[in-house]
Amino acid sequence: MAATTRPTRPRLRERYDRRQDAVVRAAARVFAHRGYDQTTIQELAASIDLAAGGIYHYVGSKEQLLELICDQLMGPLLERARVLLAEAAEPDAQLRALVRLWVEHVTEHRDHMLVFQQERHVIERGARWRRIREDRKRFEQMLEGLIAPLHAAGRLGVADERLALAALLGMVNHTAQWYRPRGRLSPAEIADGYVDLLFGAPRAPVDP
Amino acid sequence: MAATTRPTRPRLRERYDRRQDAVVRAAARVFAHRGYDQTTIQELAASIDLAAGGIYHYVGSKEQLLELICDQLMGPLLERARVLLAEAAEPDAQLRALVRLWVEHVTEHRDHMLVFQQERHVIERGARWRRIREDRKRFEQMLEGLIAPLHAAGRLGVADERLALAALLGMVNHTAQWYRPRGRLSPAEIADGYVDLLFGAPRAPVDP
DNA sequence: CCGTTCTTCGAATGGCTGTTCTGATAATGT
DNA sequence: ACATTATCAGAACAGCCATTCGAAGAACGG
To answer: Is residue A2 part of a domain?
Structure first.
């Protein structure tokens, strides 16, 4: 139960926070590649030029590390999404904007996403992870809120509203597993592609 | 390197095979819930009324258990898919049938799927898993082979062919994470929903 | 420059868990 | 019923790894 005491002096606290962020980010990278359980604290520490014990100055436990990774992932996403939804706009435009934001976030936090998905069985159970589950829930509700009116207006390419949501979640989350930074498609193009699918955008006519 | 010697006597071999299958299936169930690394062989053994050591009569190692889970998942899927593709039919009908088959398989092997996804980082690297990676590759190529002509005919709801494939993979694989046996939608309905999205099926007109 | 607060190392520890091994019991086929 | 093969429990082992701790060195504030 190491308290990982934070510095009080302003100069040092700043450094400490930056360092902690780096530790968490490094953890995300290593966990994504080697897996959470199979990564030893020693490996992790080595990857950031620390001795094993040094990690515990910034983090209370390995499990808390996982928690911080989830926070680094969900916190900014929810924040950005809230800002976007606060602006007034048509649901279809907002949905497109939100999916763009989302895909950009996923591609910028691939490691975090991969860890988040791999450790689903941990996050899904236990009181400790309630907050993170709620974050995810809130985000899904934002999507739901945009999809509902579109469904009511018959604008979706699929009959079932909830299936549309599930499909969207699947497409975007899966992006973390194939996206590569210098790939053919930009995150925005990918996002637009997903939204096009959702809208059942009628493609070019079939007959010559 | 326990050889997990199989019985030679026919009566016993049959029982052995059935038992091994049960062990693997039980492993899939427990791994899906508790996670591969966090599940001890003892827990697993207990869940099937065996002592820890007894497992090793049927399986050489914990890692091989993972391998067998992947085989139980991919083997039948590829087999069924091959049969389906052998029949002559239009690409759109075949794609629809293949996605149905696939979604049914995913929903019937939810645990296997969840383990497969959770342990992605293991399966992705190392010579030992090459065969399994190839199986997955082959399946994706089947999908690709059906999507290509549809894309050429302008039948897809999205401009990019590869994005369509990625989207489909994401949707279907994600199904394992929310599907519940007595849910509102049947696997076939879910599959049709996905295909509708892919085809950008024009929904009911917007205006009243 | 001093006292104080941070940071980091390196070693020790304590528990856990995959795997092996042995012997006993049960099933088989003849 | 007998010889042989299968099945399995239970204990023991061996290695690993998260975490703790104390001391040494570095950075700060005045």
So the answer is: no
Q: What angle do CA B194, B198, B200 make, to 5 degrees?
A: 115
- Section B155-183 average pLDDT: 96
The residues, ordered by sequence, that sit 6+ positions from B136 with a Cβ below 8 Å of its Cβ are: B74
On whether the pTM is more than 0.90, the answer is yes
- CATH (domain of B32): 1.10.357.10
Return the amino acid letter for B161: E
Condensed to tens digits (0 to 9), the pLDDT of residues A1-50 reads 445 788 888 888 999 999 999 999 999 999 999 999 999 999 999 999 99
- What six digits make up the tokens of B208? 């009243």
Q: What is the pLDDT of residue A207?
A: 40
Interface of A with B in 146-185 (CB under 8 A): 153-160, 162-164, 166-167, 169-175, 177-178, 184-185
Q: How many domains does chain A have?
A: 1
Residues of A (14-73) whose Cβ lies below 8 Å from B: 32-38
Residues 6 or more apart in contact with residue B41 via CB below 8 angstroms: B52, B55, B62
Q: Judge whether B193 and B185 are in contact, CB under 8 Å.
A: yes
